[in-house]
Specification:
The chain has 27 helices and nine strands.
Length: 536
């Protein structure tokens, strides 16, 4: 673990700019956490290849492959990797690279079961292996990979596996049928064998083999579940589909698109729908009149949206609720012709849920200064989340100001810095009003740092939100930060969020205390938190 960014005493000029080196291990953590070895997180997904993992290759060549695999496991299991693909790519690289010794390859393959928790992740891992194999003259399906894939299926509870293989059948060019065939999987139980037959041979073969025979209780449960899935796929009876959804807790992904035109089917799905999925489908259900004003379904949805226990269990972040609320208020989807009339009760429930979710955010214990650039209109949409920049800035400043014990929020533009008042009683609407009323001037993202220096404020983390292509004043933010560190003796960190840009070059890539964020989405929230807490 690296040192804390709290006060470290006076810093000499020689160490001011880089008290910590940007090591290969730090570059690896950057890649695993958000897909780039640089000091930039972007909401836009990047293609992954060996050229993206220079630090990983360096560590493997220096004989530290076991450390790499353990770091991939640790960060993934602790939930620090906001994107799964970089970790899966690193795991595939370690399991296949000529730079890895046999022990490292085996350790990487053993980690597949723990890190590929969803079938889509397993398919993606296999595809990365295939892409890496294409550059080498060697086979892909060796004994180790076959065992890893077989274990992924065999070590699951049978009913869970039945749900898994019927919910996500294929992705990244691979299917369960492909993997079961190529891995030569030998089932370790009769119930797993049934599922394997279902995937590779189809439902008719399973019916012939298991339908009229004496079977164990576990096999009978799996057979009944798969039978329900098949009936739902082929039934034209709306009430039968509703019954199957309610009795077997079938998901939306297991229901045919044609059935999703039915209000009754949506009502049945709604009863067990996870909070995250519920927030995502509010517009669709309103457009399809499932959520009509004054109906019991609206009442039930509003209760679930505001259920603190459910929100806590789902670890719902206030930012995610805000995005769902803004998208719902818009009254139409991002693509296609879907339109709806926003329901006032649902809007109020979402607003209430935002504040209830504040308790889900654990304070970092750091001292913050949040700088909100009001030099131009904040009406443009933030890349990655599709909501206005002013909504992003207002939501994030509200969250940090309400959660952290020491946080000051500033509005700045071309030589002017004024406080943005946020108390426990300040609503996000009131914060938004302050931002909209004070627009003027040009962008100078060094101003919040210079303000802190001039007012003798001790700050651990500066977070700047801007809607502009970052134009610099006389002093760049990176230079202002280094000057501030030297003056105060605090190794402060700087996060600059360019909410509407795909490229940013404020952060010094060789300074572990600087981070650029291009666009802004729910993953950016986790990236910033990891950065503040010295994970990356």
């Amino acid at each position: 673990m690296e040192p804390s960014s709290q006060d470290q005493g006076p810093v000499s000029p020689e160490t001011t700019e880089s008290p910590w080196a940007v090591t290969e291990s730090l570059r690896l953590r950057r890649f695993l956490c958000y897909g780039s070895e640089s000091a930039t997180y972007s909401t836009r997904e990047r293609a992954l290849g060996p050229e993206c993992t220079l630090a990983l290759m360096e560590l493997l060549e220096s004989g530290r492959g076991a450390e790499v695999v353990e770091e991939v496991r640790r960060l993934s299991l602790e939930g620090k990797t906001v994107r799964p693909n970089p970790a899966l790519f690193a795991l595939a690289f370690c399991s296949h690279s000529e730079r890895s010794d046999p022990g490292v390859k085996q350790a990487a393959l053993r980690a597949v079961h723990d890190l590929c928790r969803a079938p889509g992740q397993l398919f993606t891992f296999i595809q990365f292996r295939k892409e890496l194999k294409d550059g080498h003259h060697c086979g892909m399906w060796g004994r180790g990979l076959r065992r890893a894939v077989s274990d992924w299926y065999n070590k699951q509870d049978a009913l869970t596996l039945a749900h898994t293989v019927t919910r996500c059948k294929h992705r990244a060019g691979w299917s369960h049928q492909d993997l079961l065939r190529l891995s030569h999987m030998k089932p370790t139980s009769d119930a797993i064998a049934l599922i394997s037959k279902y995937v590779t041979k189809g439902w008719k073969v399973v019916q012939e083999m298991y339908g009229d025979k004496e079977n164990s209780e576990e096999v009978m449960k799996v057979f009944a579940y798969l039978e329900a899935v098949e009936k739902a796929k082929h039934s034209n009876d709306e009430q039968e589909v509703v019954h199957l959804i309610e009795e077997y807790r079938l998901d939306r992904e297991q229901i045919l698109t044609n059935h999703l035109k039915s209000k009754e089917v949506w009502k049945a799905l709604l009863k067990e729908m996870p909070v995250v999925a519920l927030l995502r489908h509010l517009g669709k259900m309103t457009a399809d009149k499932v959520l009509s004003p004054g109906t019991p379904e609206v009442t039930a949805v509003c209760e679930r949206i505001q259920d603190e226990q459910g929100l806590t269990k789902a670890k719902t972040h206030p930012f995610s609720v805000m995005v769902a609320s803004e998208n719902y208020k818009r009254g139409h989807g991002k693509r296609g012709k879907l339109k709806w009339e926003p329901n006032r009760d649902i809007i109020q429930a979402l607003d209430s849920a935002f504040y209830k979710c504040l308790s889900n955010v654990e304070p970092t214990g750091k001292r913050f200064v949040i700088g909100l650039d009001v030099s131009a209109s904040l009406s443009s949409l933030a890349l990655g989340s599709g909501v206005s920049s002013v909504a992003v800035a207002a939501a994030m400043s509200t969250v940090i100001a309400r959660v952290e014990a020491e946080a000051e929020v500033l509005m700045f533009s071309e030589g002017a810095v004024v406080p943005c008042v946020i108390t426990e009683d300040t609503s996000m609407i009131q914060v938004t009003a302050q931002l909209v009323q004070t627009q003027s001037g040009g962008t100078d993202c060094a101003l919040p740092i210079e303000w802190a220096s001039e007012n003798d404020k001790l700050v651990d983390v500066f977070v700047i939100f801007s809607n502009n292509e970052i134009s610099l004043g006389d002093t760049s933010p990176a230079e202002a930060l280094r000057t501030y560190r030297q003056k105060t003796g605090v190794f402060s960190k700087l996060v600059v969020c360019g909410m509407t840009t795909n490229s940013l070059s404020v952060a010094d890539p060789d300074d572990p205390g600087m981070l650029d964020v291009c666009g802004f989405d729910s993953r950016a929230v986790d990236v910033i938190r990891n950065f503040v807490l010295d994970v990356i």
